[in-house]
Amino acid sequence: MSKGLAKFRDYSELIKLKLSILVWLSSLVGFFLAPGSDFRLFLFLPFSVGSLLVIGGANAFNEIFEVNQDALMSRTSRRPLPSGRMKFWEGFAAASLFVFSGLMILGFAVNGLTCFLAFSAFVLYVFVYTPAKKMGPWCIAVGAIPGALPAMMGPAAAQNSITPLGWLLFGIVFFWQFPHFFAIAWLAKEDYEKAGFKIFPVPQNERLVAYEILLCSCILVALTPLLTFTRATGSSYFLGSLILSGLLFVYALRFWVKLSRSIAGELMRAALVYLPFLFALMILDKGGH
Asked: Dihedral angle at the C-alpha atoms of 150, 156, 162, 163, nearest 10 degrees?
């Protein structure tokens, strides 16, 4: 592997590129669905660049602050910082540059509200959620807030206000994170224990995780179709969202019935596929067209 390609791979891992792109997509979909956002390239370009920089920078700071814990876990020990492929100062400088430049772009080229939401998400994710992972499983609820704020940023960028569309998108992404991340926590609970993360409840309360996953999946069944009533999407999305959310609920129900690693893995993959497919439905049936 060439040095340039190796360095690109390291930076991709530093910003958790796949996760960053998924969160970034939620902001782009929100912008696209907002009324009057069509053909506003002068606003879309700085918003897309600025939001991706802040999201990636926040993920990089998360890895910087958790470098010692990452070194203890098999799933993260090969990341660039714990493996020694990247120096601490390099990661810190890159993360700082990403976040600062992203916030400046959003503040000066988009609007102050979007910049404020991005800054709030950054602070909550890095300085509240990251240390909370060592305190208890309630950290998942805390982390779900900055994880969902980018979805609210899209409509805020397009309309310079917090709209019902923004709140709905925030709610969808917020509740989606529980099935997704608790399934991951179930699969990696031994790793998390080694690193001192208290993401997963004590064994006698493991059933509580299944209840929370089932509850949040049920909420998604009720919440996702409401997007049609904002006139952001049409009847095809309405029906498709019910089917998708119903399928996710089935996976959650199977996990509730039988707690096992294999079903947890299926649930994790189903949740991972669910959100991009839901976003695709929103885009394809924007305003019922």
From this structure: -100
